[in-house]
Structure formats: C-alpha cells, structure tokens
Amino acid sequence: MVADTFLQHLLACQAPTSSEHSECRPVQVSVWRGDATNNSEGEQVVLRLVTAKNTESALQIPKHLGNVYWQPSVRQVYRQMKPQTAARVTVDHPKKGRGLTQRKSAGAGWLLLCVVIVRSTEPYPVVERASEEKYFINTAADNVRVDFPSLDDEQTVHLSVIVPAFDEETRLPPMLDECLQFLSVRSSAGFLFEVIVVSDGSHDSTASVARKYTARWGPQLVRVLELTTNRGKGGAVCLGMMSARGAVLLFADADGATKFSDFTKLEGSLKRLVGADYTVAPGKVSQQLGIVCGSRAHLEKDAIATRSLFRTVLMLGFHLLVWLLAVRSVRDTQCGFKLLTRRAARICFSSLHVQRWAFDVELLYIAERLGIPVEEVAVTWTEIEGSKVVPVWSWLQMGRDLVLIWLRYLLGAWRLKLVDKAE
Ligand SMILES: Nc1nc2c(ncn2[C@@H]2O[C@H](COP(=O)(O)OP(=O)(O)O)[C@@H](O)[C@H]2O)c(=O)[nH]1
Ligand SMILES: [Mg+2]
C-alpha cells in the first residue's frame, strides 16, 4: 500500500471528533521514510495524534495495517482537512523512527557540548599575576618597590579595605577621603587598617591619583596595586584580597555609593555571626568563617518606582536567574560593599573563577555550597554618576556568566579548591 492510501485510511480511522479539535487548522501530516521490513506484520507502530491545543494521544495502527510500508520517496504530505477534524499526525516508529533518531542526535549534541565544556575548562581558577603586579610603590619613601604580602600569611592589621577602581580618577578621591577620615579616627585606639586601591588597567590617572594618598597617608595605610591589563571588577577584587593583611576584609566600590559610616552595621553583623569582635580579637576572628553583605534590597520598591519599565524587567529577570541558578540566601548579590573574615576570603577567592560583574554571585554560591555563614545588612546607596555598567550589554554579560556558573559547576567543569590551611 502506498503512503497516500495509507494516510487516507489512517485519517478515516483516526479523525478526531471531540470538541477540543474544533479550533484546529489545516494540518501537517508527516510520513517518514521507512521500509517494508521494519513494518512487517506483527510489529507495533505507534502513532501520535497532536491537536492544535497540543494535547496528545498515542494510537496504534490497526492490526490490518501492519504490513503497510512507506514509499521511500515520500517524506512529507500536506493535507487540507475540515476544521472540525483537523489534527497533526506524526508517525513515530519505535525502533527506527525519525523522531527517535532526532531525539537521539539532540541528546548526542548536548552530550558533546557538555564534554567540550568540561574538557576545555580549567577546574580551578588560574590567577596569573605579572611581576609588576606583585609590589606597590612607596611614594612616601623614594618610590621604592615593596612586595605585597599573601592572603595565606597571618593577619597583621585589623581591617583591609579593597577598592576596585577602573578609570576612577574623578570618583575615587571623595570616596578615599571619606573612608580614610572615618578609619583614622579609630587609629588612636590602636586600630590598624589598610586601604588597597586596585587600579584595573585604568586608562586615566587613577593609579597616580591613588599613589598621592600613599604619599600623604603612608604605605602602611594606603597601597596601590596597579594591574597591567583590565580584568574586570571580580579579577581586581580577587587580587586585592590576595594582597591584603587584614583579619577582616571589606571590598567597597570606588564611587562611594555607600556611606562609609555604614561599615559599622557590617561590623556589628559580623560580630554576631562569628561571636567575636575583630577589633578586640583579630587573630581569632581571622580564623572564623563569615561574610556580611551590604544590601540594597530594602530600596527595591523605590528603584522600581524611579526606573524605566525596561530596566525594572532586566533587574527582576536577573534576580530570578540568580535565585534559580545560584544563590538563594541573599537578596541583593551585587552590592559593592561586602565584609569577609580572612579565612572566608581565602577559601572563597581561591575558588573564584568569574572576573567580571557576576563574581559576587559566584562568591556567594561558593559560600552557600561550603556552608559559610552569610548575612545581609541594609545599607544606604546613592546612584553616583559615571557608572561603568553598560545598559543591556553588562546585563547580558551577567546573564551569560550566571548560566555558565550554574552549568560549569553542575558538570564538574569548575570545582571548589580545598586550600584551607587554617583548618
Ligand atoms: N576593577 C574593575 N573595577 C571596575 C570595572 N568596572 C567597574 N569597576 C568598579 O566597580 C565598582 C562599581 O562600578 P560602578 O560603575 O559604580 O557600578 P554600579 O554602581 O553598579 O553602577 C567601581 O569601584 C568601579 O570602579 C572594571 O572593569 N574593573
Ligand atoms: Mg556605583
């Protein structure tokens, strides 16, 4: 029997009559190449009947059609049917059917993609550091070069503030002034701190502007790590952390969007989290695990009211993706004001792969996976002109990074490094 006759027979037998088919339009009937041997008598061939409403029912070819075979030349037949009887019929051979083959090749495609991702990815982050990125210049004493210490060393000051800065010659000075004034008030009580400005391959005079602070405040208080090429905020924060001396480490945006005095809120929260005060027992707290995130989640309603619908949709979409793929315990993952104990920083940053904007998400993902206690604290936030976030493009980049974080950890292409020497 040729395919055409077969179809006529089939449609006569299977014409759907229920009211749910009444909206169906002309329909596509697909008949895939088969051969007589495969459809020999007694072999079961399953038909799937799909209506325009996408309801499905599997039908079996009547026994007496068991010896039907397809014309090899016929691949697709289009039929105009009465509206009330229209439906899409595809034929699915259980052994050699085209649908199965397609599903198999799609599966093989995904498998291949996964293999490529796993094989082409380094499981642990490779932090390359040029020799010029290993020292800072002491502009307070003949511009001598002084090597940065390592995060693996013991803490020697109470607090390190890491400021990632990319082309920030204008926004940086007010932030540094505010930060240094706030912290220097505590110095008289024996509080030791340092500020590390990481100029991330800036094209402007960010590094020399920051070095003037080294000259004025001294190399114990202000250091400038000048990266030779732009890595992205995550890369800059990571190298700043690796070069820090503090028992606790804060990273803070160079634009001063958060009032530095809000740091006391983070300190209070960390004290509760680890059960000790780092200003009193820095050695003890440096060995504890804890992360406190400044948060703008309480400002979300205002942000939605003032932003365009498009930006609001992008923001909510990003939050949803973060929640679905990576981090559930923190509402605002992106706030550039986060405080970590030295041990938490050592553990998280030695496994951190993402160098761009989405690094905060990976940082918190790592913390969640390793059970590091994380708390969120509401802070003030002022939109400061000159944002480096490029509308849409940066969001797309973040979305892609989020999916990659999820996929790479899921496949085991990225792994967590066990570097905790303190344990
Ligand atoms: N290191 C580094 N920091 C960057 C880069 N882009 C932005 N930043 C820093 O990230 C912080 C936040 O950037 P900002 O433009 O204020 O972002 P927004 O507050 O989210 O609009 C600032 O300290 C910037 O200097 C970059 O490519 N590299
Ligand atoms: Mg900002």
Mean pLDDT: 81
**Shape label:** globular
Distance between the termini: 76 Å
- How many independent structural domains? 2
- The strand order across the widest sheet is 10-9-8-11-13-12-14
The CATH class assignment of the largest domain is Alpha Beta
Low-confidence stretches: 1-7, 13-97
Strand content: 15-25%
> What is the CATH fold-level name of the largest domain?
Spore Coat Polysaccharide Biosynthesis Protein SpsA, Chain A
Order of helices and strands: HEEEEEHEEEHEHEHEHHEHHEHHEH
The major sheet is characterized as:
7 strands, mixed
**Residue share in helices?**
25-40%
Number of helices: 12
* Computed structural class: alpha/beta
Find the CATH superfamily of the largest domain: Spore Coat Polysaccharide Biosynthesis Protein SpsA, Chain A
Say how many strands there are: 14
Proper CATH architecture of the largest domain: Alpha-Beta Complex
- Rg: 31 Å
Query: Which molecules other than protein and nucleic acid are bound?
Result: guanosine-5'-diphosphate, magnesium ion
InterPro entries: DPG_synthase, Glyco_trans_2-like, Nucleotide-diphossugar_trans
Protein name: dolichyl-phosphate beta-glucosyltransferase
Catalytic activity: a di-trans,poly-cis-dolichyl phosphate + UDP-alpha-D-glucose = a di-trans,poly-cis-dolichyl beta-D-glucosyl phosphate + UDP
Organism: Dryococelus australis
